[in-house]
Protein: Family 10 glycosylhydrolase
Organism: Paenibacillus zeirhizosphaerae
Amino acid sequence: MKRFKWLIMSLLVVLTLQSGAWQVLATPSKDITIYLDGAALETDVSPYIKQTDNVTMVPLRVISQGLSAQVAWSQPTSTVTINGNGKMLSMTTGAGSALVDGATVQLDSSVEMRNGRVMVPLRFIGEQLGLEVNWDRSARTITLLSGASAPAPGEPAETGDEVSASESMRGAWVSTVNGDWPSTKNSVSAQQQEFSSMLDDLAGMGINAVFVQVRASADAIYPSNTVPWSKYLTNVQGKSPGYDPLAFMIEETHKRGMEFHAWFNPFRANTSASSAGLADNHVAVQHPDWIVNTGAQLYINPGIPAARQQIIDDIMEVVNQYDIDGVHLDDYFYPYSGTFNDDSAYASYNDGGLNKGDWRRDNTNRFVQELGAAVHAANPDLQFGISPFGVWRNKADDITGSDTRAGVTAYGTTYADVRKWIKEDWVDYVAPQIYWSIGYTAAAYDKLVSWWSDEVEGTNVKLYVGHSPYKLGTSEQGWQTAQQIIDQLQWNENYTEVKGDIFFSAQYLRKNPLGLISLLQSYYHE
């Protein structure tokens, strides 16, 4: 009997312990939240505590984007290198120590991989970067204090000595198609707050101009008499957002001493090959005979004179009604890929007997010349510029082309003869998209800057260089450290023809890839 009671009691103890353990496992802990000087840091992977070492581990992205440190991860050696606040840290997976400015420092826990993500010890790194680190166990929050006072909400950040865009262009493209703005649809206050916050962030980095996509697909982010409202404002093309975004943006931009350039995508009619969802007053509905379906997108045919003129009229509506600082076109003339059936237009409008390639370039030339003339007739002080593909022609195709081996070119693929635009003085600036690293095999950044500088030398056309921070952290040659962008800016200093830079795009600057923000701030404010 005593033995039976003992067995019953033992079972009860075991069941109680198992039940308690199960409850601990079944009830998930609240996610850890990290604050830096009162602002929550975003993490795409939840931080966790290593119970064996009582160390909080966070994704490496928190260090680069949240703490504005420059980071680099070496896959072959499983080593992470962190630069910030004048210190260099190096940690290797499984190692019991780290290197801090070359000196060995013992670690409770080192860098480790979890579910394919690089995780690092927050307290060690934070304290090494000069932060005060406080852990609230009950609230499961970590508070990081830098000792710097943050600007009040809505107050523009201090930017140091401001440099105007006319002295040195420091621009950022703001795309409505690719996610720069707006992230919220159908909310006036949310869209306005988001844009104002973006301007503050950009100004804090040293950016002095924004190139905002006001026409993405033959539509508008302003009330227009000729094209429908953009679907990127409300999810429905043709639906009013309840305010004039363009007027608001211009006012907010100028309030911060920054320039506002209206960016138009000239010939793209839709980002897909379908006409479903297009408003009744969209060009593809009103003039289907002007449209070419490439198989991937809808394009307005540059070979039809009336179509070209309509686009010019659309753009001039903004020029005549808004206080913009410039008209900016991207590289959407003819498509980079797909089938472009313009045989009918070629037969109807090729009065000069040109071959197809030269005829297409002539169409583009006429459009650029006529638009530039209209812009400058309306406002001689307004800047008119274009951002073409970064390679005009390869040397293999034209001895005067660049020493590159690009698979596509501005001249032969999009039929943009940028050299002619420069020589004819049809544009105020060109901003070639030189989206490759220094020394890149097929198209080296350094070689292309030199080539474009030679093209504008002795002309009235300024050269701005288009940069690609969106490539930082990718596997492409040269983009494993944010120093690549700084090296490019420093390389540009060798050429007096380079009058500034434009970054694609605002969201990638704000994401602080590999710690780019602090590097830009140091470069622009040095």
In short: DSSP finds 15 helices and 24 strands in the chain. The longest strand covers residues 209-215. Confidence is low (pLDDT under 50) at residues 1-28, 149-155. The CA atoms of residues 1 and 37 lie 66 Å apart.
